[in-house]
Recover the amino acids of this structure.
């Protein structure tokens, strides 16, 4: 075991340099007044906290929560039945279907976002069929984009747990008088909760931190936290304000993560 | 004569062109302990699943308490099953597992609690209610599975090799306890096993199956003493099976000599198989008109010695409490009523 332990050192160094250190820098920056256009002496204060009274920031936080929750909810509504059908399918092509589900994830996400973008403009290839979606910059565009991006991440963990449920347990439930609906409610669903929790985490977190997706499909009209952070860093150069919002986002995610973990007591499905 | 509870008639069942059950008819009476005995793949579990409602039949009828059973889904049948791997609900504790069926029936809370505690007492697991399933040993899980089934007071309990994964001592205890439970509850048990000793110990009736066909139905004593064919004789206990000729009623010829026997009803000079159980043969020094051979091997088995005697290329197994020397010339002695004659079947 000792020799194996050594193999983890590069990883620890890697994590230290690329995760721990940047996080520390961001934390420090949050309480400074560093400005890229006015690099003076680093002094600590709470000036950056002023951004929380800014309307654009408040709207972005609300948007992030709103869109990520709606997208996650829709992913669950579509994804659970799909995972259920897939897990119970006796088709010989089962593996093929699961693969088909994963394949889109292998292509570049930005590319997929831009594909939607093209379709959402009033003038698009869809005009050929007499359809003009004209969705760009709307809530619906963002939600459609998010659902299509993250649906596989909802389906796969749920499929994973459903697939593993011993068929004889379902027989036992029926044997004890439960019809299909009650068997689902009392046995199958409770046993799949860990997969649902994983799916929700895998969908909710990327949706909340989404940045490219609202930028392209929201066309500047709809901003999420990620877009605000980008603006502070890249456009106005207010590093302390950008860092503070990043920290806020991290706190939100960690809290949500801990909240979800309580449902998954076993913790076995977590990635 | 008690009433017939389950009546299966002309059941046929195949999976993907493989015939699993072939034209099988069987009835089970109220308060009867029936064992389906056979090697794996003989269709006994499939038969149990048909009664439980987990498999359809291709042909045939099943009635339960006089009513057609086949159209009724598993969850509406007054039958409960103890599954082979117990199939306990991993997300529920012991109490909740046992209470599952009662909760489904919307029975008041106090009654459920009383019934569950009673069931726990019956399987000797008092105080285990709040344990997780994963914290239980195999034997305890098996008891929970039994409690979960009997708490619903079914008219018929199906048990699919429930003792298979238990160690010998525990298995013997559970055999006894199950039998006691069945008497106490007054319900019918259909018990599936491939263990002949288990079948003989527990059952009122043993059904011997092979390749989806019933070989013999009878009491343990009948099955053991009067096997109908080579398969049953060989599957139930150890036996010496010898081909012979039935000269006339009460006179059989095998191993080079004529023997008096108690069997009749065969044709004159019909080819038959003879069964002599190893414990029914007594060895003596060489005698006239007796099958005689040389001791080839002797193994100490605890209660008895297992002795192999070679008689002209044919091995005889003999169980005896007296040891003999390897190489000794011995004669085989048995009484007429210890010879059992069966119709001839090819080995």
């Amino acid at each position: 075991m000792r020799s194996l332990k050594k193999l983890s050192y590069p990883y620890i160094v890697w994590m230290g340099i690329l995760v721990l250190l940047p996080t520390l820098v961001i934390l420090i920056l949050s309480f400074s007044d560093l400005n890229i256009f006015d690099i003076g002496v680093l002094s600590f204060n709470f000036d950056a906290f002023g951004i929380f009274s800014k309307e654009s920031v408040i709207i972005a936080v609300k948007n992030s929560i709103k869109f990520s929750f709606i997208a996650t909810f829709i992913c669950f509504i579509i994804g659970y039945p799909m995972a259920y059908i897939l897990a119970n399918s006796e088709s010989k092509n089962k593996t093929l279907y699961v693969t088909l589900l994963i394949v889109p994830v292998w292509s570049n996400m930005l590319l997929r976002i831009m594909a939607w973008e093209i379709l959402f403009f009033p003038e698009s290839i869809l005009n050929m069929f007499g359809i003009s979606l004209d969705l760009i910059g709307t809530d619906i565009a963002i939600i459609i984009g998010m659902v299509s991006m993250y649906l596989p991440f909802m389906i796969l963990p749920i499929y994973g747990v459903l697939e593993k449920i011993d068929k004889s347990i379902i027989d036992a439930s029926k044997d004890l008088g439960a019809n299909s609906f009650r068997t689902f409610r009392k046995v199958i669903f409770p046993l799949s909760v860990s997969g649902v929790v994983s799916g929700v985490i895998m969908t909710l977190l990327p949706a909340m931190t989404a940045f490219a997706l609202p930028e392209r499909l929201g066309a500047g009209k709809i901003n999420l936290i990620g877009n605000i952070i980008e603006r502070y860093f890249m456009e106005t150069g207010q590093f302390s304000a950008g860092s503070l919002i990043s920290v806020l986002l991290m706190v939100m995610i960690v809290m949500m993560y801990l909240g979800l973990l309580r449902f998954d007591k076993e913790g076995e499905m977590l990635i | 004569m008690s009433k017939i509870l389950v009546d299966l008639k002309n059941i046929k069942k195949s999976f993907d062109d493989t015939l699993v059950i072939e034209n099988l008819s069987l009835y089970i009476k109220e308060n009867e302990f029936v064992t389906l005995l056979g090697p794996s793949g003989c269709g006994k579990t499939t038969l149990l699943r048909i009664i439980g409602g987990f498999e359809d039949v291709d042909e045939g009828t099943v009635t339960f308490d006089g009513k057609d059973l086949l159209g009724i889904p598993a969850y509406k049948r007054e039958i409960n099953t103890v599954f082979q791997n117990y199939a306990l609900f991993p997300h529920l504790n012991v109490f909740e597992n046992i209470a599952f069926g009662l909760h489904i029936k919307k029975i008041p809370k106090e009654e459920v609690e009383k019934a569950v505690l009673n069931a726990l007492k019956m399987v000797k697991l008092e105080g285990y209610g709040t344990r997780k399933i994963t914290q239980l040993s195999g034997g305890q899980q098996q008891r929970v599975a039994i409690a979960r089934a009997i708490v619903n007071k079914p008219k018929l309990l199906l048990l699919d090799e429930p003792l298979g994964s238990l160690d010998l001592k525990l298995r013997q205890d559970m055999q006894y306890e199950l039998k006691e439970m069945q008497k106490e509850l007054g319900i019918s048990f259909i018990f599936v096993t491939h263990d002949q000793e288990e079948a003989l110990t527990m059952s009122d009736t043993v059904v011997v199956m092979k390749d989806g066909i019933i070989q013999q139905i009878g009491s343990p004593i009948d099955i053991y003493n009067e096997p109908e064919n080579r398969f049953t004789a060989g599957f139930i206990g150890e036996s010496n099976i010898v081909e012979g000729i039935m000269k006339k009623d009460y006179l059989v010829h095998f191993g080079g000599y004529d023997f008096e026997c108690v069997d009749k009803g065969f044709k004159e000079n019909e080819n038959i198989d003879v069964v002599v159980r190893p414990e029914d043969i007594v060895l003596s020094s060489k005698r006239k008109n007796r099958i005689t051979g040389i001791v080839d091997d002797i193994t100490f088995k605890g209660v008895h010695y297992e002795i192999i005697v070679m008689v002209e290329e044919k091995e005889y197994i003999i169980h005896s409490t007296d040891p003999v020397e390897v190489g000794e010339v011995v004669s085989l002695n048995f009484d007429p009523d210890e010879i059992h004659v069966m119709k001839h079947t090819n080995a």
DSSP finds eleven helices and no strands in chain A. The two ends of chain A are 23 Å apart (CA to CA). The first helix of chain A runs from residue 2 to 6.
